[in-house]
């Protein structure tokens, strides 16, 4: 066989300029750059009441979860978070928040440094579904990073699940979830199950009552499906 028979020249991959360190690459959608939160809203449509301080957005207890004003399908997501330096409580009552993909599939945020809790509820878990492969947590008060590759579920026109959602997760650069197939939407009580939903849904960050900080949030859309503006969608 001629070696040229196995060469593929077209289409040529799109050029993307990578960012330095964890800075967003050239094709990223920046969701929080440290200065303002116009890409977010509370679930009832209110302007975000979390506070911005030193380039981070910090949960204000009791104000509620926030979601993006755009909806996404398959994504590569980068997000940095920090549990409070002052340790109070233990188990699930210590630096608790969550990153919800499509508003329903939770990656747990928790201060899991020398803090024992159920394994499928610690930092880096797919909450109540998959424990992380290892505990890669840094000390409280130190910045941590999640790099997530998410493949959204697919449903038929009749609402039947055709393909499960899949997640790969790096916590502080360490692989902790390796292309796991999600069992359904996150549930605190009971077993997860899928219910049909739009192909594009927003990202959500949780107000669990602890002043967890977030910064440097960006994502890349995968698969060419594009995002959807949901700012006029009926509020929850």
Instruction: State the name of the first-level CATH class.
Output: Mainly Beta
Number of strands: 17
Supply the CATH superfamily name. Exo-inulinase, domain 1
Reported by name, the CATH topology is Jelly Rolls
Percent helix range: under 10%
* Biggest β-sheet description: 8 strands, antiparallel
Order of helices and strands: EEEEEEEEEEEEEEEEE
Ends apart, CA distance between termini = 60 Å
As a percent range, the share of strand residues is: 25-35%
Residue ranges: pLDDT <50 for 5 or more in a row?
Answer: none
Quaternary structure state of the chains depicted: single chain
Which outline best applies? globular
Q: Quick gist of this model?
A:
The protein has strands at 29-32, 40-42, 51-53, 56-58, 66-68, 70-71, 75-82, 97-101, 105-109, 144-151, 154-155, 161-163, 166-171, 174-181, 204-205, 213-221, 228-229. It is mainly beta.
């Amino acid at each position: 066989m001629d070696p040229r028979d196995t060469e593929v020249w077209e289409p040529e991959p799109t050029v993307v300029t990578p960012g330095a360190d964890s800075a967003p690459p050239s094709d990223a959608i920046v969701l929080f750059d440290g200065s303002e939160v116009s890409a977010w809203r509370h679930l009832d449509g209110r302007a975000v009441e979390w506070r911005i301080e030193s380039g981070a957005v910090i949960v204000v207890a009791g104000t509620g979860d926030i979601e993006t004003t755009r909806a996404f399908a398959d994504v590569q997501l980068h997000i940095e978070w920090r549990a409070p330096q002052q340790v109070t409580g233990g188990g699930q009552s210590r630096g608790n928040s969550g990153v919800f993909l499509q508003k329903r599939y939770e990656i747990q945020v928790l201060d899991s440094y020398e803090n024992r809790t159920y394994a499928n509820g610690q930092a880096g878990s797919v909450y109540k579904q998959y424990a992380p492969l290892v505990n890669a947590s840094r000390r409280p008060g130190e910045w941590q990073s999640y790099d997530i590759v998410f493949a959204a579920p697919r449903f038929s026109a009749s609402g039947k699940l055709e393909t499960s959602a899949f997640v790969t997760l790096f916590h502080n650069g360490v692989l902790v979830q390796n292309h796991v197939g999600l069992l359904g939407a996150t549930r605190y009580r009971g077993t997860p199950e899928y219910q049909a939903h739009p192909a594009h849904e927003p990202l959500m960050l949780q107000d669990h009552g602890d002043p967890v900080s977030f910064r440097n949030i960006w994502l890349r859309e995968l698969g060419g499906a594009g995002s959807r503006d949901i700012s006029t969608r009926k509020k929850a």
